[in-house]
Amino acid sequence: MIPQIKEKKLQIVLVGNFNPHIFHPQWFISQKLLGQKEGESAKIEIIHPDIAIFSLDWLRLEVTRERLVAISNYDQYNEVIKDLIIGTFSVLQHTPMKMLGINHTYISEVSDEAIWKGIGDKLAPKDIWGKFMKKPGLRSLIVESNEFENEIYKNIVRVTVDPAKGRLNLRLNINDHFELINIDENSLGSNGIISILKDEWANSEKKALCIKDKLFAELP
Amino acid sequence: MSANFKLKVEGTGIEHGSGMLGNEYSLYHCAKSLPAVSVDRILGTVRDTTDPGLLSERYTFSANREAIHRDLPAMRIINEEQGGLSLTFHKWRGIVKEIGEETFIARTSELFNNVPEEEIEFFRADIQDDDKELLSVGAEFYWCIGYIISSSGQQRRASFLRFRRLPLFTNEGIKIASEKIRDIQENITWL
User: Is B38 in contact with B96 (CB distance < 8 Å)?
Assistant: First the structure.
């Protein structure tokens, strides 16, 4: 039985060297990346040289000196978040960046405990573990695949299956990771990673859907 | 008490309907030529909130029988449901082709699916306030249809329209693009 999806989340993660102090809602308004009303409605948690966090109804943005994370629970805003990131680093194009993660998370509810246990047994059969553990059960599973590598970047896909908050809730996280290779640290800007985001965006969504559908089709 | 009332909706003209004063009703509206949407959801039709509908907004009917629009366009429903979740099952990208007084026509293509482009007419009132200045011929937007799931677990269909905020071209960007074009032109091997 295919689990029913009850929640979808998206995270875009960038790794590089950021100046958190810039990431103030007013800056986004001034660059016309956010509307006036929307930007003014932002809830600012902290804006500091080392960390900036603010949220809108559809976005939570967390920026440290090494990492930027844009999170949304609202599936319809995925493209808007992607555009926001592209727009931001079209302006801040000299920001050095070397890695990009597009994380697709699906939360689904399993109908009963027998199926729940069956999923664990299917993904991690207990015949080995049962030989030396009394009651083995799957807590978390991570499967990684080096999908491809070209002259510019490599792509690694990490799939994590684990329990989500709530009873019989299953979390499937697909981390589509891209990493620039042979980079010259001195000339590094945002163009390389932003080009990957533009080029791989649609494919990443399709890839995540395909993994989800094929994996769920295999489950009891 | 059943009564006729005048339904006044900001930015969309005056529509008429009937209902019980003091109760809550939903106004169903959507793009006029939206595929798979039945006629009873045309702008201005007023139905009980228990009816299933694609888009619904809450209006309060005041004692003077005028509906007070709470200035929450359809796509802002999402914002009212903080803590709720959403699932989208169709996503389109649209390009504005013509702009009328109350509506605009756009060429839409479904994201992630190879289906033929369609022309669809949208109400300008469905554009959220911040995005109104972005409406122009050639402007791009995203349009999604899906479910909103409230924090109490209730599920209803909803629509979302959002104009793209694309950065302006920089001099450096124009220079890079020009160089690329020149490079392509110089390397064309004509038959």
Answer: no
Q: Is B78 on the interface with A (CB under 8 A)?
A: yes
| Nearest chain B CA: its distance from A19 CA (Å) | 20
Angstrom distance (rounded) from CA A52 to CA A66: 12
Q: Whole-prediction pTM value?
A: 0.73
ipTM of the complex model:
0.81
Q: Along chain A (220 residues), what's the average pLDDT of each consecutive run of 10 residues?
A: 78 95 94 92 88 91 94 86 94 93 92 89 92 92 94 94 87 96 74 92 92 90
Separation between Cα atoms, residue A180 and residue B86, nearest integer Å: 33
Q: Which residue in chain B has the smallest CA separation from A38?
A: B130
Q: Which residue has the tokens 């992607």?
A: A82
* Closest CB to B112 among A73, A93, A205: A205
Chosen for mutation from A74, A106, A109 (greatest number of chain B CBs closer than 10 Å) is A74
- Region of B31 (left: φ > 0; alpha: ψ -120 to 50; beta: rest) is beta
Contact state of A37 with B129 under an 8 Å Cβ cutoff: yes
Q: Token pair of B26, please? A: 């939903």
